[in-house]
């Protein structure tokens, strides 16, 4: 059953990469535009829908959890490497903008972490809201 989690991850990755390529073509850029991010969003939506409909077994969830834990850091490292190279080629404005985005993101963490607090009590045993 763990292999089903890997299959769901793989299908989401393929669909996300295709959509990223098509988006790049649509805006005239010769690159994949957000394919990995699209794949992660699709994966989150698919997993959420399967959990709500109670069609995701425990071993499949464990497989997804394992590969998500492996997948996200690798993708972030790859994207960070590409972003640093592009920023260095883009000049000081790109570097300053990148630093500003990181600082703003760190400052936003406390505010984002407060979203949804206290709502976990209104969920039944099946994970559905009351």
Automatic annotation (TrEMBL):
Keyword Membrane: yes
Regions crossing the membrane: 7-27, 33-50, 62-80, 92-112
Sorted UniProt keywords: Membrane, Transmembrane, Transmembrane helix
InterPro entries xref list: Maln_transptMadL
One matching Pfam family: MadL
Coiled-coil residue windows: none
Keyword Manganese: no
Protein name: Malonate transporter MadL subunit
Species assigned in the record: Geomicrobium sediminis
């Amino acid at each position: 059953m763990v292999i089903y989690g890997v299959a769901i991850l793989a299908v989401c990755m393929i669909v996300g990469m295709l959509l990223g390529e098509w988006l790049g073509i649509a805006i005239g850029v010769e690159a994949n535009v957000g394919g990995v991010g699209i794949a992660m969003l699709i994966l989150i939506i698919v997993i959420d829908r399967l959990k709500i409909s109670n069609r995701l077994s425990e071993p499949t969830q464990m497989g997804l959890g394992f590969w998500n834990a492996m997948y996200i850091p690798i993708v972030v490292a790859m994207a960070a490497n590409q972003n640093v190279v592009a920023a260095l080629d883009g000049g000081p404005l790109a570097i300053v903008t990148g630093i500003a985005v990181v600082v703003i993101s760190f400052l936003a963490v406390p505010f984002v972490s407060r979203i949804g607090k206290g709502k976990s009590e209104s969920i039944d045993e099946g994970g559905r809201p009351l």
